[in-house]
Amino acid sequence: MGEVEPGPAGPLEPPEPPEAPASRRPGGIRVLKRNMKRNGSRNCLNRRSRFGSRERDWLREDVKRGCVYLYGADTTTATTTTTSSASSSSSDLHLVLCTVETPASEICAGEGRESLYLQLHGDLVRRLEPTERPLQIVYDYLSRLGFDDPARIQEEAANPDLGCMLRFYGEKPCQMDHLDRILLSGIYNVRKGKTQLHKWAERLVVLCGTCLIVSSVKDCQTGKMHILPLVGGKVEEVKRRQYSLAFSSAGAQAQTYLVSFETLAEYQRWQRQASKVVSQRISTVDLSCHSLEEVPEHLFYSQDITYLNLRHNFMQLERPGGLDTFYKFSQLKGLNLSHNKLGSFPVLLCEIPTLTELNLSCNGFHDLPSQIGSLLNLQTLCLDGNFLTALPEELGNLQQLSSLGISFNNFSQIPEVYEKLTMLDKVFMAGNRVEVLNLGVLKRMSHVKHVDLRMNHLKTMIIENLEGNKYITHMDLRDNRLTDLDLSSLCNLEQLHCERNQLRELTLSGFSLRTLYANSNRLTTVNVYPVPSLLTSLELSRNLLECVPDWACEAKKIEILDVSYNLLTEVPMRILSSLSLRKLMVGHNHVQSLPTLVEHIPLEVLDVQHNLLTRLPDTLFSKALNKLNKLEQLEELNLSGNKLKTIPTTIANCKRLHTLVAHSNHISIFPEILQLPQIQFVDLSCNDLTEILIPEALPATLQDLDLTGNTNLVLEHKTLDTFSHITTLKIDQKPLPTTDSTVTSTFWSHGLAEMAGQRNKLCVSALAVDNFAEGVGAVYGMFDGDRNEELPRLLQCTMADVLLEEVQQSTNDTVFMANTFLVSHRKLGMAGQKLGCSALLCYIRPDTADPMNSFSLTVANVGTCQAVLCRGGKPVPLSKVFSLEQDPEEAQRVKDQKAIITEDNKVNGVTCCTRLLGCTYLYPWILPKPHISSTPLTIQDELLILGNKALWEHLSYTEAVNAVRHVQDPLAAAKKLCTLSQSYGCQDNVGAMVVYLNIGEEGCTCEMNGLTLPGPMGFASTTIIKDPPKPTTPSSSSGIASEFSSEMSTSEVSSEVGSTASDEHNTVGLDAGLLPRPERRCSLHPAPTSGVFQRQPSCATFSSNQSDNGLDSDDDQPVEGVITNGSKVEVEVDIHCCRGRDLENSPTLPENSPAPCPEDRSRGSLFGIRRQNSVNSGILLPVSKDRTELQKSPSTSCLYGKKLSNGSIVPLEDSLNLIEVATEAPKKKTGYFAAPTQLEPEDQFVIPRDLEEEVKEQMKHHQESRHEPEPSEEDRTELPEEFDTAL
């Protein structure tokens, strides 16, 4: 199956010269027919089953050429098309080579087909018009998804996996026999009437809906048909004939048909089904989403149909069962034709006088005919999601019309015909283009009480006169562009929604006001006059209010007050003393104290989280003058994020309290809440608790106790046993003992935490690859499926592989990131047809564009998952939230494409996101094209936080960064973020990933600028070695670093420190490592032409003949952090280097040498080295005095100074023993340390006696081979010890 064999019906052979297609047949197509082997898991073709090399060459000549996969119909099943195609393993498949100009008619002519059919997302199937161009349809589809490159579009169009989103058929892929309400059918002997005047004859009998249809077998439906209505009739057994039934209709002139069946099973089946039909009246037919172009003929003979649902089909006008024939439904009252792409209003529908309900939404209408005024019985008319700009005056004749929906059209003002439709009490005009609201027009519509103008372009209001409007009671103005709103003329206004505008001032009438929702504005003043005596709910969160309005304090019936996320500095005493208030939300303000209560109040929920409270009034929970507790009815109390040190002991008087949240304070004494009879949830995490006083018996209702983050709290075994019955007990786990040997300095490390919350499944997955692409970068991702867990798991397993493939094809971060998301969208296959997933992907790689930066971070996302970078302690958002509420541009795009946005701000009632991976059936409203941002990483970048929607809904960027900045363990940091979000009320799945960054030039380990490696006499100032010997072991010149940032091979480490390993290639000792070698690169500066990725070992291995544990004496104890392995000692060391500083006591430069430049002082350092463990032990190596001849390289400090994991540089002067350097370094606790490392002179590697002569001869031979003058004796001074420690 490697090569493609030409099909028999191909109208064109593949061109040998490129001009052959056009010369043989216009349009140039070739049909390749074969039975393709299928992959059952993906329901697509195998990659090896594609066309051959000749076809590929023909495609490469022009990007406008391509391939269309033409699937054969599968009639073996009567289920959905997706199931039928998946169940067949031998369906015919034709590969049609064509161009974007090839019409469907030409492909049909070559295939011998009548029509082509297009299926989108495994769902609906529509017939292509002869002039439509299939390949152009595919190209347009891919372009709208987000592909930009024409060559890539051509490649994607030829991918068979695309069939899960877009597929062409040569025949209609499924049978529709079950759609016309045929319950039973068969050929039986039939006799008309109960008498024997008629003879038995063979007839086709069909039980359809509520009718029995008898017709000739030969002519079937085209001949004479006898229709017997069964509603109210009878089904009786014929006693004189075996297995026979008598079907009778109702009424005075009832007719009867006798049907004789062949078997008892058929007789019983017909009797059961007919009995149901006779006894029940079936009046509703649902044929939605069945790819119908016409109504089945049998349906017209069902006399009882009153409601017909044909939503999401492709109904035609002029067809045998098209819309023009609907007048045959004599009793039809309800008709749903939404989402049929009719284009124009079917005028003949106006001839169905019985219609009372008509739904024509989303059909692309630009106008309505005047004949619509003849539907006098019409009560409900839905025209949402069209392109209407005006309504005909004849619509005013529909005096019974009580509901008219014209949302998401193109109206610029309220139609005047509303004034004639006196039965209408609601104006539904959401999602139009109204910019000016004229209150005078609404005043003339005295019958209108509800006005819905959300998601318009409202900017101003016009008031014609001062006379008030006494009719409007409900107004919805959400998601507009209003800056000031004065509705004081609406004196009977009861409810107002004005969220997500730009309001600075709001003025209302308070005579009838009951509920006010004005969240997410810029309000500084809210005026309501008179005082709203009927007000029960007031929500003013996320504004700029500095105080609670006075009129709100005087409202006598207010029950809910939400003023969180404002600038309040105090809570008025009148509010806290309200006798009607049940719920008070004042979190995220600047409140410093609460007033002292005097009387009993019925408050049930008090939320004062994230304020500046230092103490609570001592009498807050005490008894009032009437001997009742002041907060006796308090059920929920949230004190988190303040500066409280104690909670008053009188809280024990709150007998109804079931939830106490007081995390992130300074509470040191456990509050007396374990005696409350109804306590269920207690969160005291991140405090300063030291002990817990436990009563004799805990309340049986206690379910959740969170004590994490209390570092000084120690729970005894007895206490833990007491808490054993609690469903959820959260305490800090004791850290596992670690040694310095396990501490490694890396560029990044991550921690992941996922919590299911109160849901029974976890729909969040994460991707973490610290060593991506053989170690040159890292990839982190977060995937949130909302209610499905399948897509997050699929993306977790596949997205990294897709990114790796795309990185190899393009170096442009925008291109390969966008293609990664689009290809992952395609690879979801059938699972992505109905399900969707938010996705976030972060890719860290060496910055090839800017050599001054070490790494760059590229972030791409769709949906609601976000990434935040902590730079210098400040949060830097890197993602974009694609939701209708937070992205006005995306909301406008969805509106322009005529999607229906429900009142809860969801596209078609499904999701609030406008871009997702998956959900292909919501195309083109939901797209997979991601938002992409790139930023170079600097030394100021501390960490990266990835989180899903639930995390960022409950945590701000600043709060999340501040919460984990000083947490050393990334896993503990991630868990802390999840715990915080849950303590703030998050009950959904929450996921957080924290990536600690250690990026900076001090982490460089490469030889960048051609530094000449020193020989035995130090640096050679002028000597150039043309043919340096090849290293015996692989170096890190491939430019790849593993998880330890940058490593060196074992032989490199051994040679550089002067090890005398017994291996043959290491017997040369120190001098072998000082020979010139190819330039070494690190992850910060990868080699531009690196070939094969090689991971280098992260430990140095030394051999010693002194003792098994590598020590000089058996009396010495093993050094902490050193792992012994037989006669070898393996030390996990950091092989990083950094740019050193000038030594304070460096040798004086000779007179003839130029003065060092400032760049030399900052980038290069000279370290003296004394060889040991050799015959020349104790002799100092000279240091070159000519700095200008020293080529600057960051690897200098790696060769002549050891950089510890904490950032310090240890010069290798008295000893080159890396074991000493690694073991004597202090433990890294909180960043860098300033104390210098003290070297132990006793711990040294000593050359065995049997190797001393050999090493001496090799050292002497090597010194004589280099023609360099010996330095003077005064130059042989030992350089003092210096450490490069960060502040």
TrEMBL record:
Any GO molecular function: metal ion binding
PH domain location: 181-279
Main location: cytoplasm
Ranges of Low complexity composition bias in the record: 1033-1061
Coiled-coil residue windows: none
Span list, region Disordered: 1-27, 1024-1118, 1142-1163, 1253-1287
Database matches in SUPFAM superfamilies: L domain-like (SSF52058), PH domain-like (SSF50729), PP2C-like (SSF81606)
Highest taxon listed in the record's lineage: Eukaryota
Catalytic EC class: hydrolase
Function text: Protein phosphatase involved in regulation of Akt and PKC signaling. Mediates dephosphorylation in the C-terminal domain hydrophobic motif of members of the AGC Ser/Thr protein kinase family; specifically acts on 'Ser-473' of AKT1, 'Ser-660' of PRKCB isoform beta-II and 'Ser-657' of PRKCA. Akt regulates the balance between cell survival and apoptosis through a cascade that primarily alters the function of transcription factors that regulate pro- and antiapoptotic genes. Dephosphorylation of 'Ser-473' of Akt triggers apoptosis and decreases cell proliferation.
PROSITE patterns listed in its UniProt record: LRR, PH_DOMAIN, PPM_2
Gene: PHLPP2
Chain intervals with Pro residues compositional bias: 8-20
UniProt protein name: PH domain leucine-rich repeat-containing protein phosphatase 2
Membrane topology category: Peripheral membrane protein
Catalytic activity: O-phospho-L-seryl-[protein] + H2O = L-seryl-[protein] + phosphate; O-phospho-L-threonyl-[protein] + H2O = L-threonyl-[protein] + phosphate
Localization in the cell: Cytoplasm; Membrane; Nucleus
Biased composition (Basic and acidic residues): 1256-1270
Listed cofactors: Mn(2+)
Compositional bias per record (Polar residues), positions renumbered to this chain: 1091-1110
Matching Pfam families: LRR_8, PP2C, RA_3
